[in-house]
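Note to self: keep these together.
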Amino acid sequence: MDTISAKTKEKLIRLGEALVDQEKARVLIPPLKNAKGFWFGAGNVLEDKEGNFYLSGRYRNGGGFANRSESRRAGFGVGHF
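Structure:
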């Protein structure tokens, strides 16, 4: 696998910091468990004509590809809010 240069890595970090203010960010949908590898994300947001927002995404439960010794599935649910 190729690696990225230090200059490219720094540019990507600056881009991420510009897109998400970690000081103001907050959790909208909590994970099913407060533990490493558990989260809700990888979703989309839609605004309808009346100004209502709809959020969809998936739950991650801490298992999966990086930890093949785990018997549970990593991404197991999709949520719509």
